[in-house]
Amino acid sequence: xxxxxxxxxxxxxxxxxxxxxxxxxxxxxxxxxxxxxxxxxxxxxxxxxxxxxxxxxxx
Amino acid sequence: xxxxxxxxxxxxxxxxxxxxxxxxxxxxxxxxxxxxxxxxxxxxxxxxxxxxxxxxxxxxxxxxxxxxxxxxxxxxxxxxxxxxxxxxxxxxxxxxxxxxxxxxxxxxxxxxxxxxxxxxxxxxxxxxxxxxxxxxxxxxxxxxxxxxxxxxxxxxxxxxxxxxxxxxxxxxxxxxxxxxxxxxxxxxxxxxxxxxxxxxxxxxxxxxxxxxxxxxxxxxxxxxxxxxxxxxxxxxxxxxxxxxxxxxxxxxxxxxxxxxxxxxxxxxxxxxxxxxxxxxxxxxxxxxxxxxxxxxxxxxxxxxxxxxxxxxxxxxxxxxxxxxxxxxxxxxxxxxxxxxxxxxxxxxxxxxxxxxxxxxxxxxxxxxxxxxxxxxxxxxxxxxxxxxxxxxxxxxxxxxxxxxxxxxxxxxxxxxxxxxxxxxxxxxxxxxxxxxxxxxxxxxxxxxxxxxxxxxxxxxxxxxxxxxxxxxxxxxxxxxxxxxxxxxxxxxxxxxxxxxxxxxxxxxxxxxxxxxxxxxxxxxxxxxxxxxxxxxxxxxxxxxxxxxxxxxxxxxxxxxxxxxxxxxxxxxxxxxxxxxxxxxxxxxxxxxxxxxxxxxxxxxxxxxxxxxxxxxxxxxxxxxxxxxxxxxxx
Lengths: 59, 634
Hints:
heterodimer; A: mainly alpha; about 50% helix; B: mainly beta; 26-stranded antiparallel sheet; 3 helices
């Protein structure tokens, strides 16, 4: 067995197992803390996507 | 047993075996034959040469369950000058065994019935199969031998000095045969290559060989001393003092010519000893050879190795690459136009040319000469190489095969205790490819582990449902950009990923969810979007579709807490494309996708190995006259 390959492969399997057990994901999301005062003010809160990209789908 | 008197000298001679034909008188060395009526003096034989054979007259053994005694021997001289022993074994069942000894090998044959179609010698070609019913044999050599000396009792009418033609044949499994053309109807002897152990002759009983003894002779040109390392075998030797090239004939040296250049020095000095497979070899000779291809000469070097009991081997050096080679029987090899098979392995044709001896140094067991040419062909199955050489000499034609194995330069240095050998350049024909594909075995192992882990994770995944709800969608009011809905509080345990599924039966439309998972206690917010779109139609008679009526996203684990999901729906126009949308959210959903991602990553290195291996093979075959499939390059 190639030692180098075995080390790399073992590392990959370790990362995979840890990711699954710890709930890691690699999808693009955004995390932030929004104070309740902002969230509760009428019209004071818009989603991140509203300001940044939004979705304008369609053909 | 018959006792009588030698017709030449009158001394007593004894025929111990009823079927022996000739006895060599111990006193006058006359070969005495017995006929139906009287004794016949066939003439005097020459003095026996000390061939250093471990065998001797009177030695007994057992072969095939039958005991035998060695009754005598004849020394035969090859037309090219070499001498070999042919011993005669009188078996207890009345048979005679012919035990030829050459270059450390023993060939035991018995007289067998010749087939009616036994071919004439002119019908044989070295390296080719024997025509007719002996087709399973390959012709090793066609030669001429002369009986020069003998001792003891001999089962055939040996006449000193008489010459006869013969053909040596070999077949798979060590089978060996000789066709003897000394009589009107050729005689066929069949048998095999045997070891002393197979003959029931122990090393102690066989007596100590004298071959290791060196002999000191004097150069006839300069008078300098010449020490022969294999005096019983040497046919040609060079003088280390004056560079003369000398012929060795029964212990006498004859000046042939001066070697015309001394530019080539062996990297491993003559006389150096090295142990390979527990046999200690001595470097006794050195050759520089060349082939001319497209007008350009390519050189390589061959070191002749010798060990008295094992015979000869070769150490071949070219461009810093080394191979250790040994002779093999032609009959073990099956040659086709593009390849060769040996012991179940296929060797691809690599090179074919006429090789020429450029320079010689040391001792040789044949009458080598500068300019000596042989048709050669190399076949490879790295790390092995088989070389086929077809040589024609005085009164003989011979095909010889050698089986070589690549020897790393470090091993050569360690074996022969030499330093500073040049580093290899380029790729040798039989150099092992360092880029092994065995890594694919490792890949399969680790991929299997990844799949097993994925199955275990999938089987033990919690998949706790946090939300499973239909949301009705109302048309947008004037000035409204989107519809916002808040879910009831969700209890998230944390440390597990989140899967969010949205399903809406959209048809050529889209609907987008901007989602915010908000921890009500501390304001921590995870923001993500879920676009659902599905389009389909027919263009130019072909139906097509794009997207799906459902969409799934995964979100990394969020801290444990009480969350609210804020969903903001958007669509094109005022009216929603569907009346409702179904959203499901689960915690702890293992994904096979990551296992396949890992497997994909694991495959990168093996794929690189394939590329590097192919590149190495490309460089190997760049120097070949043939492509790997055996076709000649234009």
